[in-house]
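LOG
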Amino acid sequence: MKPDRLQAFSDGVLAILITILVLEFHIPNFSRGHLINAVILQWPILVAYIVSFLYVGTLWLFHHDFFSQLETIDRNLNLINLTVLFTITLVDYPTNLVATSIASGNTTDMKTAFIIYDIVALLISASFALLYWYVMAHPNLNNSSTTFNSSVKSDPLRSVAIYALAIVVTPFSLIAGAFLLCAGIIFHTFAYVHLSKQI
């Protein structure tokens, strides 16, 4: 099987996910002449959306460039790709939890929301680690002109470590936990640049 159909399906799933993220924007309740105040109070939704949009967008770039280097797809790789997509589609839920908990101002709820986001992000990185491992273990799937060095293969595991640390730290420090979550998401940008230099 050629990668084209898999990429088209995956692109469609990720496009729908990004659309679902933006659907969380609703017209706020406001008194006449006070719309600006009501809109400003929606800042948690906007921030959570921007972070998740950039996250999913980077994951799409990863996915697109990675599969563009493959010559063929087998059944196992199809199943692994479905696993990757499943984990990514979970992002919408913690995005809403983070936005709602920040708006509430309750520290305990915010910690819970960030930990759930960390868990989803960890699962996403773990699924990419599985994807990397499978393709490296089956060179017949890969374009003969493309090779990935060991440091690139380790990038998903590095992000798993960042999110695992965030899960441990967040119950003790919300600020440190939020920083680690954002650091993990930013790391994907550098990892993507790392990958793009190999293809």
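LOG (cont.) second protein
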Amino acid sequence: MNCMNKNHGCAHICRETPKGGIACECRPGFELTKNQRDCKLTCNYGNGGCQHTCDDTDQGPKCGCHVKFVLHSDGKTCIDRCVKNEKSGLVKKLAISVQRQATMLSVGL
């Protein structure tokens, strides 16, 4: 078998070995799985797609968040715990921020 054969089985990169076989490799940020053909995403490249923390598991990266944040339903983004608990969420926090800025401008700060 050689890499020109589309059925070589490598998920990402196929390299031909000196003995006429093939060896699979993965693109940056991925590692070869136990079957030596498939590639799985790791935390080593782009933090595994995680916004805060990333832990490598057998299933791939598992994202986590810093204190005062919770993981969004997308499994990658972290949300301020206070915002998540508010009924109107980010809109309410943004409105308060805009009000503070307007007050500061009117007072001349």
